[in-house]
């Protein structure tokens, strides 16, 4: 159990009050640990929400910069306010739009050190296929909520939409597990998938 003090209590309080899903603290610490280990400094985030995860990534180092995409205008504006209030707005490029429509052409030509996917879970495959080419060789790809709050292990799901989402997430998880990529499924938080953009057996 993570016992570290909360770095952004104002954001945590906002998330609790407004029922905004945020990343589990244990999963956050694992992600930040991987950022430290790999020296990841230029991050692409799919799914800003209120900017809580981005703020934690920015806290790893003053050299960290984040490009983050959010389709909900209210969340986008709330996140920008938090970035400004915490004095990190200059290190964040916030993009308002659906990541499925934004595409890669409007993003930086500089390869990203890490891709963090934390948006609509049924689109993990699409986000991975679209944005992982922007990550440098040897870089990280991290996907949150791969357990869907336990939904992935449920056998009887009445809701057709929930069943379809489970199928999509399960299919993506199995595809990564069967690929030649170095990957780890970590049972922290709601499940964290860590992928190294390097195939097993390659030298780098």
C-alpha Rg, in Å? Answer: 16 Å
Structural class call reads alpha/beta
**CATH first level:** Alpha Beta
Number of domains: 1
List keywords for this structure.
204 residues; alpha/beta; Rossmann fold; seven-stranded mixed beta sheet; 7 helices; SAM-dependent_MTases_sf; S-adenosyl-L-methionine; transferase; SAM_O-MeTrfase; methyltransferase
Secondary structure elements and pairings:
Blueprint: H1 9-17, H2 25-38, E1 42-46, H3 52-58, E2 65-70, H4 73-85, E3 92-96, H5 99-102, E4 112-117, H6 124-131, E5 135-144, H7 160-178, E6 181-186, E7 192-199
Walk me through this protein's architecture:
The chain has 204 residues and is α/β, with parallel strands linked by helices. It has one domain: 3-Layer(aba) Sandwich (Rossmann fold), CATH 3.40.50.150. The protein is built from 7 helices and 7 strands. It has helices at 9-17, 25-38, 52-58, 73-85, 99-102, 124-131, 160-178, and strands at residues 42-46, 65-70, 92-96, 112-117, 135-144, 181-186, 192-199. It has a 7-stranded mixed β-sheet, sandwiched between helices. The longest helix has 19 residues, at 160-178. The N and C termini lie far apart (34 Å).
